[in-house]
Amino acid sequence: MSWRIGVDIGGTFIDFCALDESTRELHTLKVLTTPAEPGREVMDGIALLQQRYGMDPAEVTAFVHGTTVGINTVIQRKGADLALLTTAGFEDVIELARLRMPDMHGLFCARPDPLIPRDRIFGIPGRVMSDGSVQTPVNAAAVRNAADAARARGAVGVIVAFINAYRNPAQEAEAAAILREAAPDLFVFTSAEIWPVIREYERTTTAILNGYVHPRVGNYLTSLENALRQQGVAARPMVTKSNGGVMSTELGKTNCVNMLLSGTASGVIGAAFLARQANTPNALTLDIGGTSADVALVMDGQPQFGSGEKVGEFPLFIPSVSVTSIGDGGGSIATVDNFGVLKVGPESAGSTPGPACYGRGGNRATITDAMAVCGFLGHTPLAYSSVTMDRAKAEAVVGALANAMGLGLQETAEAIIRVTISNMFVEVNKLIGRYGVDPADFALMPFGGAGPMLGCLLARELGMARVMIPRRPGVVSALGGLIAEVKNDFVATVLLPIDAESGVALAIAAAGLRQRAESWLREEQQFDGTATLSVLADMSYLGQSFEIGVRLEEAWLAQGDMAAIATAFHDQHAAIYDFADRSAAVQLVNLRLVIAGATEPPDFPRLPRVEGAAKPLRDVEVWHDGALRQVPLYLREDMRHGHTLSGPAIVAQEDTTVCIPAGFAGDVDALGNIHLRWREQAA
Amino acid sequence: MSSIDKVTLQIMGNHLRAAAENMAYTLYRTAYSTFVKETEDFTTQITDASGVCVAVPMDLGATWYPGITYGRAMAMIKDYEPGDICFTNDPYSGFVATHVPDVHMWKPVFHGDDIVGFACGHIHNTDMGGAVPASLSRALTEVHQEGVRFPPMKLYRAGKINDELVDVMMLNVRKPDQNRGDLRAFVGALNTGERKLRDMVAKFGAPQVTQGMAMLLDYAEHQARDVLRSIPDGEYFFSDYADEDSVNGNPCRVALTLTIKGDAAILDFTGSDPQLTSALNVPTGGDPHHTLLLVGVYYVLCTLNPQITLNAGLTRPFTCIVPEGTVLNPHSPAAVGMRSLTCARLRSLIFGVFGLAVPERMPAAPAGSSSIINVMTTDNRTHRTVLAAVNPIVGGAGGMPHRDGTNGSGADGAYLKNTPVEITEAEVPIQILRYGLMPDSGGAGLHRGGLATALDFRVSAPHTRITARNRDRSRFRPWGILGGKAGGPSDMVLNPGTAREKPLGNTDTFTCEPGDVIHIHSPGGGGRGNPLDRDPARVLLDVARGYVSVAAAAESYGVVIQDGAVDTAATAAKRASLRVAGDAPHFAFGPERDAHDALWTAEIYHDLTVLLAGLPVHWRFFVKGKLFELMPRTGEPRATLAELFAKVQAEYSDVPAPRRLESV
Hints:
Shape of chain B: globular
Mean pLDDT of chain A: 91
Largest sheet of chain A: 9 strands, mixed
Low-confidence stretches of chain A: none
Number of helices of chain A: 18
Oligomer: heterodimer
Strand content of chain A: 25-35%
Radius of gyration of chain B: 26 Å
Strand content of chain B: 15-25%
Largest sheet of chain B: 7 strands, antiparallel
Helix content of chain B: 25-40%
Distance between the termini of chain B: 47 Å
């Protein structure tokens, strides 16, 4: 007997996935969050798993947790008071950032206030040059003075980030050592130990995010460890990471920055796993909750990775699963301007007060209210019976807009939905432009509490012929944690030309990365299974100011096969830009290595096939595409492998409601996923 | 044709914007040059069948062209067929391209035999040939020196590229690989726009798309008129100055009378200087809605209504009057390469005049000068020649009604990006000694102006050539308003604080020796409101943060700081001694402009405008220069303009008699 447990905290709920490995059965659970006592809901959930499914904590072999403690700390700006030591002359590095501002069309645009105010930033004389040589030693007295001043101004921790530390971290380490001796009460992180990559703002801000959330995340993880121990959970707890992998909670206390985007990342990891299982290698995942709507691309069964993803108002420059925000979710508010034009967002009712129809004080029309007015919602208990639907409240708030627009009540509700979908269409188009893909080549996979409600409508707008609704859309993120690999990224900025003379240096750099990676996996993570290593390089033509990612083979580096490396770059360049100058000089900027310890993926049981159409519970009245219609309502738990259904239809389940417009039809696969096709294009 | 409702209008607006955004992301992903990647000096648009812009992206690219109309350039090509892609970069053919490095392109989108719209845009090429690398220099005097020009013509005819045309372009430019790469990327973006527009036609129907475009223009117009209605009717006059009208030249004046009546506005630029014998001219062709004249207006509209729809409908309530032969409507072949410097003054001119109309809702002047620094030097180890952009030196925003100006950048400079110090040091053999904010550079105010940025770097090879484009505001400062003080001026100095110190001011190109240190800082933003009303605690915080010195806290803000704390009694006394009775004038310009205004009064400028407008265009800049030479200095006996002109006529007998113009 053994159990694997995945736990994911969202804005309103905490989701549990518990895999009973003896029966291969997956049990799911949602518990309301307890913001006053973070962590208590985990204990509640474990107790419920014991009660309901007879899980024995001693038999838990894996416990993987995704937490929002870190990202919430940044969004709410409740992190640690930090000091920053920079190279003298560069004290404004975080205020200037990269200069360009969001929303640059008005005269009042501004950058977010930095996480460290300028009076706790201290310039330290000392200079490393771009080749790594030391021009001026660190001024130790200045470091000690800064420690005193930092403490006097309320700092509890210090970030050290010097110019060119990516090339030679010795001065940062030296300053950190002086700080630890002079001020042992202050914690210290250096930029090179967090993510030693070229570009001072990016490296500094990433190190600051790490320090900013460190005390809260550390405390949270410590109390989680204690609580799990008390409950008798045997497994060493793991936490999910922004790169889609997992690491031990022990490491999470100091490598906090790696957890910041783990929530959205595990959703994509879970979705990618489900897509692979269902033979749907190319998917556009759509995760909509009450307060957020995110999309991501899964290509050949794999998520995409990038850096520069946003944490609250700040960019994070470690490799993360690429996720694009396309709105604020089911709570986005609809308004009518004085020209009579209907707008949805950017204001959101969030989870409090939430949509009017939830009866928790919301008094403005949201997307969820519009869905309720059209008759899509409220036929069965919502969100594991934790929410009750008050349709009259929805009709009142949507009715106010209907008066302003001179339209009928349901016409207005449908208009809100149409405008919402077209807003999402704009954002998804940016993603499409960024990757240069055709949405028609992808299946849309909606999940989260509100994803399946809007997914088919968005697919229709985007001209996507296929939609896949996973069996349990509400717990895809928790599942993502359960199946994630123990994984970490390593980087060395080498800035070497690709020529014969660089071979030895590259081989040394690669070997160094490999050694660090092996030590991380085997020693720090105590992982003894099979591991995979992938080598990537950020490369460019000499003199080009931006790099492209190129996949390399380890053997090329070990053997100094420069021709193979150059060819890989030229090929990739040609793939992106349609041309390559194979005689031009090429340089390798960053060498990157990803190590992953494989986790045995769960093999869910296949359901026996039945024939025929699914049996609806009853017909319900729904306003859809401009008319009131009788639409069949199905219960997801009644749907069997092989069942067919066609839109318009509604499928209700504990964690979400699936809305299927006219024109879509499909069936249920052996794993319980619903696959829908757009008839007009499928024919 | 069935009328489309306003819900469908919003949805169509989203789809059109999605098309423009998709074009921009496609271009950004596939473009090759640093200019596109780092500076984002490009735009994309969807236009209607007549070439009027109906949608632009919000995230990527420059902010200048939501009001662009391609009609005149498009009309210079007779027949369009599917697969055509047209382009031009000639500033005097259709007035779409406004300097030679900007290549504008457009592709018709057909439905049957009809054009439903165009996918359009521009890209700034690093170099288009001509007299100097990068094609731009203030010192150039004719557009012919500014690179190879193409009037509107077909790059692709029915899907087939004209290779000969491309060969001509590549032969004439210094970095053909970059031009070729960007051109290829741009064609991809246009094809994307065409595909997206065709998808829309399939989804909504061609008549509906056409009608939707018309309604979207109406919608933006309606929003702009709403903003205008919220501004009191009246006539508002303002003038602003570029420091120099040519290398080491006289001030260049731009002037504007804004008349607001109900929901319409007239922008009369009469009083702006004659066209220049330098590259600072702005080619508009006198188009009453030219987008370059209205860039400042887009900023004002977005400031007063952040939800405004960006398209050419915004330009309809505005009518510009731009007299011929002036800096804002030059005759060919006046050079125009550095029109970006003058455009910055045009924007501050518009911000200033709207500030007079709605002082409670507008900020003080932003720094308004972004110098682009380039270095050409030799790597002492590899002996390789390196040419690289170092950083744009951008200044802060003006004090706002609700907060301080943004430090280091903001307002109409907020779209610029910097280059990381570490990238520069890795690629260029220079050492950066400092890159940060400049203390005491923000105009003092209840809401302080945003600080300037400063950059110091050391070069290590002989014959290192530095260029700094857009140098301005070294003399005339960004103005403060409502009692706020002017921001600090820009400056550039060679080897500051040493025996070899040399002021460079607005110099835009010079040569350095090994070991030379170059210091440059931008202007700072103007302040807003009386600095004596600023909370002493905020002033103390500014001092703790190094934004304001202890001395400036006392002299500019009247806040006396002793041992890191506000001395309340001394502060009260100091503030009482500094306070001046009565209302402050709307603008605070700083001493340099005040001195200039004392000599060059409004009356003299009026006479000058009348006089020069009566002269043939080729005489105007010459006569203006002579009049400036002859103007008595401060303290000398004053002279009327007629007396000064009589002296010019006496010295130069070929000067023609001016046509008599009573008013202009």
